[in-house]
Amino acid sequence: MNQFRFSLLIKQALLAILLGGFFLVVAIGLTVIGIQLVYAGRIFPGVQIGQVNIGGMLVDQALLFLKDATTYPQTGDIQVQYQTGFWKVTPEQLGLSFDPGATLQKAYQIGRSGPFDRWIGDMVGVWNSHHSVAPVYIFNQNITYAFLQNVAEQIDLPTREASLKIQGSEIIAEPGQIGKSLDISSSIGLITQTIKSQQDGIVPLAVKEISPEMLDASQYAVSARTILSHPLTLTASADPGPSSGNWEFSPDELANMLVFDRIKNSDRVYYEVKLNENILRTILTNLSASLDHPSENPRFTFNDETRQLELIKTGVTGRSLDIEKSIASIQEKIKKGEHTIPLELTFIEPGVKNDIAGESLGIRELIHTEISYFFGSTSARVQNIQTAAGRFHGLLVAPGETFSMASVMGEISLNTGYAEALIIYNGQTIEGVGGGVCQVSTTLFRAAFFSGFPIKERYPHAYRVKYYEKTAGNHTNPKLAGLDATVYVPLVDLKFTNDTPYWLLMETYTSPQNNSLTWKFYSTSDGRRVTWDSSGPTNLVEPPKPLYHENPSLPKGEIKQVDWEAQGADVLVNRTVLLNNLVYLQDSFQTHYEPWRAVFEYGPGTEGVPQQETP
Hints:
Layout: H1 2-38, E1 47-49, E2 52-53, H2 59-69, H3 72-75, E3 78-82, E4 85-89, E5 96-98, H4 100-108, H5 116-128, E6 131-133, E7 137-139, H6 141-155, E8 163-167, E9 170-174, E10 179-182, H7 184-196, E11 201-204, E12 207-210, H8 218-227, E13 232-235, E14 246-249, H9 251-257, E15 258-264, E16 269-275, H10 277-291, E17 299-303, E18 308-313, E19 318-321, H11 323-335, E20 340-342, E21 345-348, H12 358-361, E22 365-373, H13 379-390, E23 396-397, E24 402-404, H14 405-409, E25 420-425, E26 428-433, H15 437-451, E27 455-457, E28 470-471, E29 475-476, E30 495-497, E31 504-511, E32 516-523, E33 529-534, E34 538-541, E35 547-550, E36 559-563, E37 568-579, E38 582-593, E39 599-602
Parallel strand pairs: 1-6, 3-11, 13-20, 35-39
Antiparallel strand pairs: 1-2, 3-4, 5-7, 8-9, 10-12, 13-14, 15-16, 17-18, 19-21, 22-32, 23-31, 24-30, 25-26, 27-30, 28-29, 31-32, 33-37, 34-37, 36-39, 37-38
C-alpha cells in the first residue's frame, strides 16, 4: 500500500515539473515575443555604436544621429611617407566612408538573428550591460589607387644608364640614375592596415628601386679623351715600294670616327671605346690604292751566243696593305695612348730571283720570231709603238699562266709616254692618245698564234687597217687579213696561255729605220708545229663614197685626208697545232670587216670640193 502511494507521488511530481517547465517556456516565449513586439522597429536597449548609445531608438532616428556621431573618415590623420617626403590625408580622402545603413542593420539584428538561444543571450546581455557594435565602413581602394598614382608622379624616376656623348671634340660622361617605382599594390596594403585600426598614423610607402646596369661611365670618358688628345698619324714603311709616307687625322676628325660600343657579358657591362671600323676600312681601302703594288719578276734578255739570261731590270718586291690587321692594330694601340701607328703591310717577294739561270726556268732557245711592219706611220704612231712594245721587253710568262696584255699595258696617257695619233673609236678614225698600240697587240697575237699557244681572247679591228697587211719592203699581203688584234684598256684585251712546263721570255725590238716591230719568244721547244690556212678576204664590199666636211681650223684651199677607204670583207683563219705529229689543238678565227669610206676635211671657201649626196 505504502509502495503504491510513493509511486503515485513520484508521478505527480514529475508531471508538475513537466507542466512547470512547459509553462516556463511558454512564459519565456511570451516574454520574448512581448519584448519583440514592444521594440518592433527599435534597437534593443544597451546597443551602442562604438561609444554612441543608440538603444531604444527607431532605426531612422538612429540613422540621423549616427551621421554626425561617427567622424573618423573625415577627422582621421594619415600621413604617407617616403624618405623625407610626407603626404597628409584623411581616411575619407583615401576612400574610407562610414556606412550607417549597414551599421544600423547590424545593430538592429542584435537579439533578432541567429539561433533562439543566441536571441535569449543577446537580449539578456543588452538588458544587463552594453552591447557594442563595430561601425561598418566602405573602403574604396580605387580612390586610394588614384591618390597613390599622383604620389607616384612625384616619386617615380626612370632608370637611366650611364652614357657617353661627343660635343665637337669634347667627351661628356652622363651619369646613370637609379630608377624608383612606387609599389602601389603593396602601399595600398599598408594603408589598409592603418585604416582598419581606425587610428591616426604614419604609413611608409613601398618603393622599388631599379639599379642601372652601368651607373658611372667616367672611366670610359677618360679613355675617349686620351684618344682625342693628339692627332693620329698612320705610317707606312718607305722600303720597299713607292707611295710610302704618313697620313694624319686631327682630333676633330677622330671625334667623328669615335664610337662607344656597349658590351654586356655574364658578369658586367662596359663601354668599348674605339674608332668606327667602317670608316677606318674606307680610309685604308683608299690608301691601299697607292700603297699596294704587285711583285714584279726581274726582266732579262737571252744572250744567243752564251745562251744565258742577262738581267736588265731587277725584280720588285710586292706590297699589300693588310686592312683588317691594320684596323686591329690601330684599335689596340690607340687604346694604349699611342698616336703614331704603323700600318700592317704584307711584302711579296718575286717568284723569280735576279740571279736565276735560264736553265732553271727552261729558257734555253729561241722558239719563235714575229715581225710586223708599219710603213707610212707618223712619228707619233711610231712613238706609241715603241712605248707600248717596251712594256713587254724582258717579260716572263710562267708555265700555265694565261697572259693578259691589258694587265701589262697599264695606263695609256700622255703622262705615261704616249702621243696622240689616229685610233678607231666609236665607228670613226680620230686623233686619240695611244694610236698605234694595236700594232703591238697584232704582233703579239701573231707571235702566240704561230708559236702554237692557245688564244683565250682576241678582238679584230672594225675595218681592214693597211699597216697590218704590210710586209718587208712596204709590200702588202692580203693573206695577213684576219690576223690582227685590237686592245682597248681595260675593256678589250688580248690573252693567251703558256701551256708548256717551261717559262716563256719575251723580247721586243722596234726599228723606226726599218719600220718594223720584232717580237721574240724564248723557252724550250716541245716540238709543236703550226699549220694554218686562210680564206683571204671574201664577200668583198666596196667602201662608200668619200665624205668631205668643212674644218674651220684649215685655211682656204686646203684639203686634208683624215680617214682612208677600205673594202668590207669576211676572213676565216684556221689553225692546227701538231705535237709529236698528233693534233694537239685546232681553232678558227672568224673576222668581219666593215666597208670603210675615206674622209676629207677642207678649209672654208675651198673650191672644187665634190658635192655630197643628200641622204
